[in-house]
Amino acid sequence: MILSATEIQAIIPHRYPMLLVDRIIELEPMKRAVGIKNVSINEHFFMGHFPEKPIMPGVIILEAMAQVGGVALLYPEENRGKIAYFAGMEKIKFRKPVTPGDQLRMVAEIIKVRGSVGKVWAEAFVDGQVVAEAEFLFALNSR
């Protein structure tokens, strides 16, 4: 299943400048999602990180990865209208810098969901190479 940016906005509450997923290219609700972020020099965070050598901040990469996981968790009708809040992050590793012109491909796999808590493993790739990985813990709450 493929989702456009407009369809993603119907699932997660993020909007510019914090919507960090341009497209979902694969989706198995409550199992797995693959998303794309085209990294442009026009991103607001490059003005200060760093003006002479623009690098996508690690926290922004983590947020983009988490949003892909959020789409997988929130796509089912019974979860629509909820927000997936961070409850924790573990096993975070940054492998390579992400720079303007890169296409970030993020793969998020749901490890488990128990009640309103979910655990997701995610990796981000540029040109097939891992640039970041992390395990996220989410708490699903009503808006």
Automatic annotation (TrEMBL):
Catalytic activity: a (3R)-hydroxyacyl-[ACP] = a (2E)-enoyl-[ACP] + H2O
Keywords linked to the UniProt accession: Cytoplasm, Lipid A biosynthesis, Lipid biosynthesis, Lipid metabolism, Lyase
Enzyme class: lyase
Classification via SUPFAM superfamilies: Thioesterase/thiol ester dehydrase-isomerase (SSF54637)
Protein localization: Cytoplasm
GO CC terms, sorted: cytoplasm; membrane
One Pfam family hit: FabA
List of catalytic residues: H49
Biological role: Involved in unsaturated fatty acids biosynthesis. Catalyzes the dehydration of short chain beta-hydroxyacyl-ACPs and long chain saturated and unsaturated beta-hydroxyacyl-ACPs.
Protein name: 3-hydroxyacyl-[acyl-carrier-protein] dehydratase FabZ
Species: uncultured Sporomusa sp
Source taxonomy: Bacteria, Bacillati, Bacillota, Negativicutes, Selenomonadales
